Amino acid sequence: MSFFGGIGGKSLWDAARDIVTSREKAETLPTESNTVLFVGSRTGGKTTMILRYLERTNEAAKPTIALDYNYAKKPKTIDTIGKDVGHIWELGDGTFLTKLIDVVLTPETIANASVVLVLDLSQPQELWHTYQTLYEAIAKRIKYCINEASKQNPYIKEKLKQSVLKRLGNAVRLDKGEIEPLRIPLLIVGSKYDLFQTLEPDAKKSIIKTLRFLTYYHGATLMSYSEKQESVHLRAMINHFLFDTSLSNKQPQIDYQKPLYVKSGSETPEQIGPPPIPEYELGDLRENSPIAVWRAAYCKRFPQEIEKRDPSLTQDYGRDPQYADASIDAMREQKMSELQRYLTMKNRSHS
């Protein structure tokens, strides 16, 4: 074979040029890793979802104390280019530690961040409060991060706006005020779907209808989840968030007796229908905005129970056996003994 002989019909010069071109293209591909933040109901199953996705099913899920971090390597079955590692954060303790959202969502990460909001469907009396508290904290933080990031990158606002339009369909008019989509991708997961099935049919219909409205209003994707069943939709969605994979155009599944799935932009207000209260009661609602009307309707059907904590009764995780560490525990006991001796001496000096 001559120096200019063919390799797959190409000369060596052509093959070499193709290699150089491919390397130049690779250097221009985005290299920033994507970040996914899990938030939601306490004991809603967030940790189990993450462990299953990471295929660490032999590990027992432990309560997340504050903020937990994992990373995921791109599976070999995914052929997207440019992002090989994704970051997964989990906010623990339900609605009590929202300030820690600031650690994950920053001006540097916001352009490549997504949120998974997990709502426990077996606790409808806490669902709206959990959603509202976490969503408002996230939306506020996102707004701040975008404003800060735009000082360095003036195109980020337009970039995120175009991403919203792409998720919802370009026919959507954001300036009409009919919806308020989150500026980064949002997945709403209705967890404990197996326990949800034990509720009364009317209650299930009302909950699912409300979730469908929230999904439409915030430009989110909605799906159900049960620890008793593997969710291919959840795995596909996390892969999409972390590694920019494509999503299938599966039709919405809204029958509460089957696994729930509604992709962002796939439903209209006409398909969802009015809030889940009798029509004659709608006229009694004084709220003006769509979200306020749905909140009033849902909370009338399911009055919300807001958990209040006495800080003195907060669990002492330092004495929890599952977080035991011999060296740290010994130091802790030493410091506690020193404190006790100091307090004893102080009391004697005043007596």
TrEMBL record:
The protein's matches in InterPro entries, at most eight in alphabetical order, are given as: DYNC2LI1, Dynein_light_int_chain, P-loop_NTPase
What is one term from the GO cellular component aspect held by the record? Answer: microtubule
**Which ranges does the record mark as transmembrane?**
none
GO biological process terms, alphabetically, are: intraciliary retrograde transport; intraciliary transport involved in cilium assembly
Output the superkingdom of the source species.
Eukaryota
> What keywords were assigned to this record?
Cell projection, Cilium, Cilium biogenesis/degradation, Cytoplasm, Cytoskeleton, Developmental protein, Dynein, Microtubule, Motor protein
What compartments host this protein? Cytoplasm, Cytoskeleton, Cilium axoneme; Cytoplasm, Cytoskeleton, Cilium basal body; Cytoplasm, Cytoskeleton, Microtubule organizing center, Centrosome
**Main location per UniProt?**
cytoplasm
A molecular function (GO) term? dynein heavy chain binding
Tell me which SUPFAM superfamilies the record gives.
P-loop containing nucleoside triphosphate hydrolases (SSF52540)
What protein family is recorded? Belongs to the dynein light intermediate chain family.
Recorded protein name is: Cytoplasmic dynein 2 light intermediate chain 1
Species lineage: Eukaryota, Metazoa, Spiralia, Gnathifera, Rotifera
